[in-house]
Amino acid sequence: MSSRVHDANQDLGVAPEFIVDPELLDAISPSGDRGGIVLGSGLQGEPLTISALRSAPTRIVLVGGLYLARQVALRAMAVGAWVVVATGRPTAWHLLSQAAGTQPNGQPSPLVQIRRLSPVELPRPSEDAPLLVVHDGGPTPQDLFPPRSPWQTTVYVLPYLHPQAGAMANAADLVLMQRLPAGQAELAARIWRLPPQMMRQLTTLKDDQVVALGRNLWRPLRLVTTAKEKQILGPVRRGD
Q: What is the pLDDT of residue 1?
């Protein structure tokens, strides 16, 4: 794993600022610094940014509920990324299309595409138009959309940890984990060789808390949700 979590006031140096409709930016969430995504706050209330969109193919594994997955997708939209969601539950993702709005001709915004769980041609990512692919395919997803080019990030949404997903999870650049039951925390400890105190912490996270895990990284944080996001997503929650 190689991703890092940064204080939002630091110069990340990993992505430019992307151009997006100001109304969309206001309707969704604050953007991160230079293309990063503000995910939450630290123990002192400082905003923390993840380098989710960058000039290298990137894998993010998210272990938790739809709330966190949809918030990450909304914030990628807010910094001008294309968002393609491959899912077996498309109705759960329609709110992203609604948040993106429509074009002047009344057609849905091309910023968001909701797809079935099957290979499709993806938009070509670039520095000016990065691509976030959300793979919402259950606890043992097929690798249908592996990130193969710079400025493509694939997020794998795992409702829970499964032993067969261990290799994919361990290969991720960044893992975001919400609260886990004891058995799941034990599996996480085996996959990432976590010491007992970290394993126990995973079982005691509150609904609005997440652990960011990467190489030499263990960073608990608290999700921060704007008033506009609450209108779209509802209250912060661990489940769906």
A: 54
